[in-house]
């Protein structure tokens, strides 16, 4: 629908704050018209432990507590729900863009160098970490070896993911991640302008709902299967990670070394298995 709006992006209030409206000039077949367009909102989120800022990540507002919980867990700051005493938005923060956590074990959680790495990383997972070894020393183990999913079931997941992407359908500008059961039941889906943030939101949901480990789930992501996505999935003990695009070489190496099933180019009736094919049944 074409509506008259101002040329400045305007946030939609309430639960739709992940979408902004703006006016654009559309060129089509030589004709130029001014139309309304939807944009995915991108804003910084600062995550603090008490008064100590530890990370600033650019994200799409929405499910911020899940994002913060997932970040704290997948980055090894906490090892489980029991270590998280409190997690809440900072009331005095501008536009609600700060989340603060209170941990069960106070004390020197971070070195100065670690804190600098988190700011540099913006939750990308690999920035600030030099090698796979720096992740392996955290005690990440091989996920559930008994989990199985049928190939036909796997092929149906991209369509289910796309159907659940409400914001993407209006903006075309977001990544998505979703956890599915072996029978293809959608457990949770989250969207974000950053693919790693979408994954953290899914894992944060699981953490806050006492669903960790996600050892009986498939994680489906809309973008590529990069190293940071593999790392975060392994922390949550997800046995199968599937993406519609290609994985990176480091992602494949990590998945093979730690026994995760990694699937790429999952589109239609085709996919490529890079690691752990024994979990996919005919």
The value of Rg in angstroms is 20 Å
Structural domain tally? 3
Distance between the termini: 45 Å
User: Helix count, per DSSP?
Assistant: 9
Shape: globular
CATH topology of the largest domain: Cytidine Deaminase, domain 2
CATH class of the largest domain: Alpha Beta
Number of strands: 15
Q: Please give the oligomerization state of what you see.
A: single chain
- Main pleated-sheet profile: 6 strands, mixed
User: For this structure, what is the CATH homologous superfamily of the largest domain?
Assistant: Cytidine Deaminase, domain 2
Q: What series of H and E elements makes up the topology?
A: EEEEEHEEHHEHHHEEHEHEHEEE
Q: Give the helix level as a range of percent.
A: 25-40%
Strand neighbour order, sheet with most strands: 10-9-11-12-13-14
Q: Would you tell me the structural class of the helices and strands?
A: alpha/beta
- Please state the average pLDDT score: 82
Proper CATH architecture of the largest domain: 3-Layer(aba) Sandwich
Q: Ranges with pLDDT <50 over ≥5 residues?
A: 1-16, 116-123, 125-130
Helix/strand layout:
Blueprint (H helix, E strand, L loop, with lengths): L9 E2 L7 E10 L2 E10 L2 E7 L2 E8 L4 H11 L9 E6 L8 E6 L8 H10 L11 H4 L12 E2 H5 L1 H7 L2 H6 L3 E7 L4 E7 L2 H14 L8 E5 L5 H9 L4 E4 L5 H10 L2 E7 L2 E6 L4 E2 L1
Helix pairs in contact: 1-7, 7-8, 8-9
Q: Can you describe what's shown?
A:
27% of the residues lie in helices and 32% in strands. By secondary structure, it is α/β, with parallel strands linked by helices. It has three domains: 31 residues, no CATH class; 93 residues, Roll (Ubiquitin-like (UB roll)); 133 residues, Cytidine Deaminase, domain 2.
